[in-house]
Amino acid sequence: MVIIFVKKRGNIEMRKWWFAAAIAALLAGCQDEKAWHEQPKVVRHAPAHGDNIAVSSDGRYVYTANIDVDTVTIINAKTKTKEAEIPVGREPRQLALSPDGRTLYVSCMYDDEVDVVSLDKRTVVDRWKTGIEPFGIVTSPDGEEVYVANYRSGTVSVFDAESGKRTKDIQAGDRPRALALTADGRKLYVTQYLAAKVTVIDTKKRRAVKEIALAPSPDKADRKKSQGIPNTLEQIVIAPDGKKAYIPHLLTNIDTPIQFEETVFPAISVIDVTNDVELPDERKELFAAINVTDVHNETIIVSNPYDVAFSPDGGKAYAVMSGSEDLVVFDLRRGGKATQILRRIHGNNPRGIAISPDGKTLYVHNAMSHDLAVIKTGGKSPYAKAKQESGTIRLIAKDSLSPLVREGKTIFYSANSDEFAINITGNNWMSCASCHSDGDINGLTLMTAKGPRNVPSNILATKTGLFMWDGSRDDFTDYIHTVQGEMGGMTAIDPSKPLPPKVQHMFDAILAYLNDPRSFPVPKSPYRKADGSLTAEAKEGERLFNGKGNCLSCHGGEYFTDSVKAVGPDGKLTTANTAYLHDIGTANPKDRASKGDARARFTNPRTPKQWDTPTLRGVWATAPYLHDGSAKTIEEAIRRHRTKEVQTLTPGEIAAIAAYVRSLQ
Question: Which residue ranges form the domains of the chain, and what is each CATH number?
């Protein structure tokens, strides 16, 4: 700026001079602003996907969404130090970088919003309201649009990046979760988490144009070989050449009684992105494409695959196994099979992986220990071995969870047989989360010694009375029978005796996690009106629920169950009180009577006519229904009740009650 002093000028002349100077400065600023806006737009020319970790295009920074701490972290990749930790909304699940690298979009699951973070200012500058429980997120190649998967709403929202306006909601199937976008931005792939389908959205037409159902892996005579129904599609990542997409998930064998070596298997399915079909022969699974042996010539068992990263040239794929806490390396130039398993990534529960632009470094995001593991790839050679650097990089200043709750959550998601006071699983096969997907349901009915059992939700599980479908447990520590019989862990313990203090502490920690109100909030219902109130049909259903249907006789109180009344003379829950177990005519021909278990000294026998009353809060999100999963809808579950009141209800009245039940939250 140049300042000119003029003597003997009057006030009017001075005001005119200052006005002209101000106009000139304003015009100059406008020219600068115009010049800034006229800079060439940065356009991404590679496939993209949302994730809980991202690396800047120049490789200088690593960004993480710190799931239950409600922050995002910026790590300097060169110095391996944390530069910033930015508070965001509750439960940030995934993030996406704008193509110009100046903005970070964060899906905040429990606040139903996307937080927009300016990386220049390193703060949240805007918040966009989404559908219920946003999860996957990705930007268009030009950065003008942002796509968000709404897990509970069943939609993908399209946002205008400049205005923040939600311009479209696209139906995307059941529980849409992860997103991947082709390099040209024309096709958006959306995983349906439990349904094991991929919705293909035409971004120009703004609608779903195809649905790809992942095929079951066929049954085998050897039950210990990979087989079963695909579920829990954790991620979808398109290879650098844009021809294939990889989807890490589980296979669950529902044909035989639950046994840790025969029920849950890791898998990575492959989609042909050109023709939008699955390539079943290219699926990576145990004892086929995943078959790396140890020094004893035994296959190394890995579990809970979560995320995949490709080398820049597409020659290798790196997959993190969140349960067993391993890295599996696939050589895609030489048959696509696993060539290395890097055992025990430093840290707990690796859920995200990203690779540096030069392909030399992998960054692994550990969701439970909230730190970053750094692994050197070893280069392009097929004989190169990945090797992790010592230590990890701390991502957070303070944990939002108490030490006991964090420990319990870590155990719940872990299939690491070597990490705790005693193994919670046999030979790294499965975690609690292998059946209770992300802590909730998996939508499947598994065979047990007592008969078929629908996997229940953990939402409000510690608040609603007795445990198990037949109410055969009254203490959480009784789950040692599940750990021993189904997960293959803790087999050295006599369940009829008090547990050793360190083992009891593990159960106390898991219970603390399940009991923490932040762990499993009841999901908001998409069946309510926009203002959260009941629809007219649901109000009529409420009247019938409380009146003619007599549903309150079992589904009463704050939690819509009577199981909390199953107490003894001391006022404590007891399996001996069977007055609140009911026969509503829903027994399955495969159900078998039980003589009880050792933990209860066999004082808890059950018959196929004794069923615990489940809570109805959030039940809209837990299909299928009944203990054997035989009712696909709430209407069907109501009709199956063999009570005199239900038998008098008309189809319209049943529909109204179902509308009310779907609204409970």
Answer: 40-212 (2.130.10.10), 439-661 (1.10.760)
The dihedral built from the CA positions of residue 168, 520, 452 and 559, taken in this order, carries a sign that is negative
604-637 confidence digits (pLDDT tens): 999 999 999 999 999 999 999 999 999 999 999 9
Sorted by sequence, the CB contacts under 8 Å of residue 79 that are 6+ apart come out as: none
Helix (H) or strand (E) holding 513: helix 501-515
Q: Is 349 left (phi over 0), alpha (psi -120 to 50) or beta?
A: left
Q: Tell me if the pTM is above 0.90.
A: yes
Q: Under a CB-based contact definition with an 8 Å cutoff, are residues 195 and 173 in contact?
A: yes
The token pair at 228 is 């079963």
In contact, 496 and 599? CB cutoff 8 Å: yes
Q: What is the mean pLDDT of the chain?
A: 94
Q: What is the rounded CA–CA span in Å between residue 622 and residue 443?
A: 7
Q: Are 82 and 393 in contact (CB under 8 A)?
A: yes
Question: Could you say which DSSP state residue 554 is in?
Answer: T
| C-alpha to C-alpha distances, 268 to 201, 281, 289, 386, 411, nearest whole angstrom | 22, 11, 10, 20, 24
471, 610 Cβ separation under 8 angstroms: yes
- How do 92-97 and 284-285 pair as beta strands? unpaired
